[in-house]
UniProtKB/TrEMBL annotation:
Cited InterPro entries: Dual-sp_phosphatase_cat-dom, Prot-tyrosine_phosphatase-like, Tyr_Pase_dom, TYR_PHOSPHATASE_DUAL_dom
Native source species: viral metagenome
Any one annotated GO CC term: cytoplasm
Descriptive protein name: Protein-tyrosine-phosphatase
Residue spans of biased composition, Pro residues class: 12-21
SUPFAM superfamilies reported for this sequence: (Phosphotyrosine protein) phosphatases II (SSF52799)
Length: 215
């Protein structure tokens, strides 16, 4: 079971949002440490937005790199702690949502907590680093879902943008199916004002039905 905070009651419905808004900044945000990227897949991946970036557990365990880039929040979806106990990193708020990088792994078990954590960092004017083990599949899947929810762009469009900053990015096939289902419900005009928890529930229900048919 994911090591996450229990989700509270669903908040008020969101107001209608435009069908399409810009994805990411057209260029990496000035001042982010990305000198080794994209040659080094474990490097700091520059800001996808003014507050959001993706990378690996290796980067998450370098306090100096985090502080130099103004990171205040870490979302870890790998199977390892973001900050080992022997590293003192003041000023960092961490949420661990461990999942396996497996096609059979459900994203929906952690999706609400993960997306709410990212959104909280955004609303508080903070910077968040989202990582898994290699910064290729799990972390990318979570960030894709966040961007789908916020921009209503397609999974393909969002992944293409992420790959401009992190060419190695690519969720596994099982995650890709779940991302597509999440996008289907998040982008549906009839669902645009639904709380995030309800959108996730719709996608998870359809995913579970799909998996049941394959047994």
């Amino acid at each position: 079971m994911a090591d996450i905070r229990s989700a509270g009651p669903a908040g008020p419905a969101r107001p209608p949002r435009p069908p399409l808004v810009p994805l990411f900044t057209s260029a990496p945000t000035p001042g982010t440490d990305e000198s080794a990227f994209p040659k080094d897949p474990d490097s700091f991946a520059g800001m996808l937005m003014a507050f959001l970036c993706i990378g690996s557990v290796a980067t998450a365990n370098i306090p100096r790199k985090l502080s130099d880039n103004g990171i205040t929040h870490i979302l870890n979806v790998s199977s390892f702690p973001s900050i080992p106990n022997n590293i003192n990193t003041p000023g960092i708020t961490t949420l661990d949502c461990p999942i396996d990088d497996s096609p059979s792994q459900s994203l929906f078990t952690i999706l609400l907590a993960a997306l709410e954590f990212i959104e909280t960092a955004n609303k508080d004017g903070c910077k968040i680093f989202v990582h898994c083990q290699a910064g290729i599949s799990r972390s990318v899947a979570i960030v894709m879902c966040y961007m789908i929810w916020k921009t209503h762009n397609t999974p393909d469009a969002i992944l293409t943008e992420i790959q401009k900053y992190r060419p190695c990015a690519g969720p596994n096939i099982g995650f890709s199916v779940q991302i597509a289902l999440f996008a289907k419900h998040a982008n549906a005009e009839c669902n645009v004002s639904l709380p995030l928890a309800e959108i996730i529930n719709l996608a998870e229900t359809e995913y579970n039905a799909l998996m049941a048919k394959q047994k």
